[in-house]
Specification:
alpha+beta, Beta-Lactamase, 2 domains, six-stranded antiparallel sheet, two-stranded antiparallel sheet, 9 helices, 8 strands, globular, binds P-hydroxybenzoic acid, Tscrpt_reg_IclR_N, DNA binding, HTH_MetabolicPath_Reg, DNA-binding transcription factor activity
């Protein structure tokens, strides 16, 4: 793909444009996109025009653009995320109906926890996860499961970098985190009390496909809620998701 004078490929600049959109910024003018993507105005206007013409962005009557329905369609079609989500949904719904708290499904994506699905309940405790949102691996319960069962190289890299505290209870000491990850591997569950928010406890278990851990299933409970029932529910659901995945093409 042709490179700009900065050496950046067209694909990189397109991704830079698409990344300016998020849950709080769903419609933008081409000038706002240029500023946020740090692109020359003429480049941003041209790229936005091309993306609208191909359907990856949609333009509204006011001239602002949004991520296109066609982009959603392409992203969903045949994606691993959709297959996993479809296998998981009936089991997540059961966990959520029984516990009446938030239930999440997450995968490892470029060194972070990426949430594919989240089911909520009107009276559930506060929860900062969002569908298509990210949290650090060492802070969230799902991330700790993905880190514990992930590649040893990833673990080394995460443990070698400075670990930011999201709350005063987030594990940031590499030795403490190493011991915690060993426990997660041995017990196949993590109970993260106050790691992400002081008021809540995240509980996560691994989801396997053909023995390999491919996702984490979690619930967020009030901080001092009992955990045994939730752990049982999560384990039953994770086993059901594995069976469903192994049957699905
Ligand atoms: C967790 O996964 O540990 C978690 C996630 C979101 C919250 C609280 C806990 O708001």
């Amino acid at each position: 793909m042709a490179n700009s004078s900065s050496g950046e490929s067209v694909a990189e600049r397109i991704v830079r444009v698409l990344r300016t959109f998020d849950a709080d910024r769903t419609a933008q003018t081409p000038s706002q996109i240029a500023r946020r993507a740090n692109l020359p105005s003429s480049t941003a206007h041209r790229l936005v025009g091309e993306l609208v013409a191909t359907g990856l962005l949609d333009r509204d009557e006011g001239g602002r653009v949004q991520l296109g329905m066609h982009l959603w369609e392409l992203a969903q079609r045949g994606s691993r995320a959709l297959r996993l989500r479809q296998a998981a949904m009936p089991f997540m719904e059961r966990v959520q109906a029984r516990l009446r708290e938030h239930t999440q499904l997450a995968v490892l994506e470029r060194g972070e926890t990426l949430f594919l699905e989240r089911l909520s309940h009107p009276h559930a405790v506060s929860n900062i996860t969002r569908i298509a949102g990210r949290l650090p691996l060492h802070a969230s319960s799902s991330g700790l499961v993905l880190l514990a069962f992930g590649d040893p190289d990833l673990r080394r890299r995460v443990l070698a970098a400075p670990l930011a505290a999201v709350t005063p209870d987030t594990p940031t000491d590499p030795a403490e985190l190493t011991a915690l990850l060993e426990r997660v591997r041995a017990e196949e569950v993590v109970v993260a009390r106050g790691f992400v928010e002081a008021v809540s406890t995240g509980i996560a278990v691994p989801v396997r496909e053909n023995r390999r851990v491919i996702a984490a299933l979690s619930v967020v409970l009030p901080r001092e809620a009992p955990t045994a029932g939730a752990i049982d529910e999560l384990r039953r659901a994770a086993a059901g998701i594995s069976r469903a995945l192994e049957r699905a093409p």
